[in-house]
Write a structure and sequence with these properties.
This protein is an alpha/beta fold and 202 residues long. Strands 5-4-3-6-7-8-9 form a 7-stranded mixed beta sheet, covered by helices on one side. The chain has a two-stranded antiparallel sheet with strand order 1-2. It is built from 6 helices and 9 strands, in the order H-H-E-E-H-E-H-E-H-E-E-H-E-E-E.
């Protein structure tokens, strides 16, 4: 996966590549789909949700530009795969999921494997965790109709926000940087994510 799908498509962040080598992706998909776990496309994980394709996980993680000192907020825990990658690369992770069953299953997986730097929350991820802010990085694993003001307000100065923004079936993956009261953004390309449900979502 790392050599054939990630390096060849331009992922060069050595820390991200190493983390994706360490985390066993097949443990985050249903048993009947494990044979597809390392293919470069998304897979269903139940409750109408998906685990993103490996390239997109790598691209989004690399866009966070992690050094190991960051406090991260993840919107959409899902299976916990992206959460585990973040936990490998950052100081601490807060992750929020609206579907209780998915959150509880992810908690069991990550705690079994000893990830002690992750805290799980159940609720509307589109409004973030204002009591836990500010965050050095924020990443969303579902699509927004527009840039979410409530989440950008929880970003630390010089922080980075990475998320798909656009329509229900097609979005653009954006990297947004905060500089004081201003924000700059880069378009990382087109993508397809499930829409986020909530106050700042759909």
């Amino acid at each position: 996966m790392v050599e054939r799908q990630l390096r060849r498509r331009g992922i060069t962040d050595s820390r991200v590549l190493a983390a994706m080598t360490r985390v066993p992706r097949h443990r985050f998909v249903p048993p009947e789909r494990q044979w597809e776990a390392y293919a470069d496309y998304p897979l269903p994980i139940g409750a109408g949700q998906t685990i993103s394709q490996p390239y997109i996980v790598a691209l989004m993680t690399a866009a966070l530009e992690l050094t190991g000192t960051e406090k991260i907020l993840e919107i959409g825990t899902g299976s916990g795969y992206q959460t585990a990658i973040l936990a490998e690369l950052a100081r601490e992770v807060r992750t929020i999921e609206r579907i209780t069953a998915l959150s509880l299953a992810a908690q069991d997986r990550l705690r079994t494997w000893g990830y002690a730097n992750v805290r799980f929350f159940i609720g509307d991820g589109t409004v973030g965790l204002p009591d836990e802010a500010p965050f050095d990085r924020i990443i969303a694993t579902g699509g927004f109709p527009r840039l979410p003001a409530l989440l950008l307000a929880q970003l630390a100065d010089s922080g980075i926000f990475v998320a798909p923004v656009g329509g229900r079936t097609f979005q653009h993956l954006l990297q947004v940087r905060k500089h004081g009261d201003t924000f700059t953004q880069a378009d990382l390309g087109g993508c397809r994510f499930v829409p986020l449900t909530g106050k700042e979502g759909w």
